[in-house]
Amino acid sequence: MRIGALKESFDGEARVAVTPSSAGHLQKLGHEVHVESGAGARSGFSDAAYERAGVTVHPTAAALLAAVDVVAKVRPPTEDELAAMREGQTLISFFYPGQNSELLEQARGRGVNAIAMDMVPRISRAQKMDALSSMANIAGYRAVIEAANNFGRFFTGQVTAAGKVPPAKVLVVGAGVAGLAAIGAATSLGAQVYAFDVRPEVAEQIESMGAEFVFLDFTDQVQDGATTGGYAAPSSPEFLAKQLEKFRELAPEMDIVITTALIPGRPAPKLWTEDMVRAMKPGSVIIDLAAERGGNCDLTVPDEKIVTENGVTVIGYTDFPSRMGAQASELYGNNVRHMMADLTPAKDGALVHDMDDDVIRGATVTREHDITWPPPPPKVQAIAVQKPKEKPKELTPEERKAAELAAFRQQTRNQVTLLVAGGAVMALAGLFAPASFLQHFIVFVLAVFIGFQVIWNVAHSLHTPLMAITNAISSIVILGALLQIGSGSAWVVILAALSVLMTGVNIFGGFLVTRRMLAMFQKS
Asked: What sequence ranges are listed for the domain Alanine dehydrogenase/pyridine nucleotide transhydrogenase NAD(H)-binding (predicted)?
């Protein structure tokens, strides 16, 4: 099959669906790769770079559409682009079928098989094709960069000769892919990061990245991300009121607010109201990543940056991924080539549109003059609510002392019982066994008891080096073998030589393994 990438016609769009590096992977699947001239120029990919990668460059969009079987784009196609496509062609792009019903109907009428990259189900197997997550990751990172560019102070706290600089306080509302990327970027810059999300299962993720989770004292509503494909569901009015109350409490303290809350197919919820903006300090910055769907902030103007009367900057750009065109194109190009890999299971260049496959079925919105959206729910759910782990109760000094005393008494009872039982066994053996056996048996039992007591209190991570060094020490039996080598019997000499060989391996190998294992626990 021939796959071609169109030049994006949307004003200011810098991304491209196929890069020179992703073209190489597509060729390994047995496909020919084509691209419209200038498609990658705004992302830094020249026509010459494509030609060096073995890609055919076409001068116009019409020439490309006439030559290829699969058309790859980033933005949804325009009506003119769909009209130029022929029946049976496959389109891979963002489509947003819930908001573009007329475009969906046009694709059905043209007989175009449309695969919407925004409809890839959020299941583990489809993560490599999840273009929404790829772009959200870039948007979250870029949001922090834009905030830093518009914020008049350091992110990190410093103590200098000129004075102390406090760290910037950053609040991230919504801890999806974009929110987590923003948390990671802001934390790495040294900011004091707070984050909020209505899904309880993301609290551990937030805290593991060095941010502080903003807890809401509201137990009546626990959302399950699995029922909504990993997204947050609409909140109840009571929950929303409690949420806004918490945000009003935080607003005067925050220097930067990054909002990422979006619900698929719905306008963005209003979470940062005008009075919260007025409560913020002059010089504060709000980055609204939901601006394209109306914004989470009351004052957001899509594609514009405004400064309020009290000096708060509100940024509502809708092209954050495009502002990092090269990186965004590489990630999106990888998503497309992974989708093509699923469509080409035999890697022979033949497209297999398997509608029994959860991923392909979920992403397909039109096929053979039929609208296939919305898809049935995938057989595998995205994520499920995890029960919060119960934190261990903090013991008082008196309780801790009582617990230690009880543990000591229990250990003493166990040891006394073991010694009494062992003594009884030794006495019983002494009644029937010869004295020479009893002497060796006592040494053996004491060795086992001491070894057990020593090894029992060693951390599990040190068991391997401990056993290795024990092996090396136990090989002292090599002395016996050396004494027997001078024996007059040939069999004794052979066995003694074998003993020396095996114990030698045990000694050197034991010390070598111990050395390597212990090196793993050293910072150097």
From this structure: 148-316
Of 318, 346, 361, which residue is a domain's last?
Answer: 318
HEC secondary structure over 9-27 = CCCCCCCCCCCHHHHHHHH
Residue 428 lies in a domain: no
Q: Which of 42, 108, 110, 122 is catalytic?
A: 122
pTM of the model: 0.73
Range of the domain at 479: 458-523
Structure confidence at residue 332 (pLDDT) = 98
Q: Active site residue: 231, 317, 322, 499, which one?
A: 231
Residue 439: which H helix or E strand, with range? helix 435-456
Would you state the pLDDT for residue 442? 79
Annotated catalytic residue 127: yes
130 is catalytic: yes
pLDDT at residue 490, rounded to an integer: 84
Q: For 33-46, what is the mean pLDDT?
A: 97
Same domain? 341 vs 312: no
157 with 244, same domain: the answer is yes
The one catalytic residue in 130, 197, 255, 288 is 130
Q: Let me know whether 112 and 180 are in one domain.
A: no
Of residues 22, 89, 133, 235, which has the active-site annotation? 133
Q: Which residues contact 403 (CB under 8 A, 6 or more apart)?
A: 395
pLDDT score recorded for residue 417:
92
Across 352-357, average pLDDT: 93
Annotation marks residue 317 as catalytic = no
For residue 465, the model assigns a pLDDT of: 64
Same domain, 305 and 336: no
282: region left, alpha or beta (phi > 0 left; psi from -120 to 50 alpha):
beta
The Cα–Cα gap between 102 and 293 comes to 19
Residues 290 and 332 reside in one and the same domain: no
Residues 30 and 111 occupy one common structural domain: yes
Total domain count for the chain? Answer: 3
pLDDT in tens, 73-88: 999 999 999 999 999 9
| Domain match, 256 and 334 both | no
Residue for token pair 């959206």: 373
122 catalytic residue (yes or no): yes
The pLDDT value given to residue 273 = 96
Catalytic residue, candidates 9, 46, 101, 127: 127
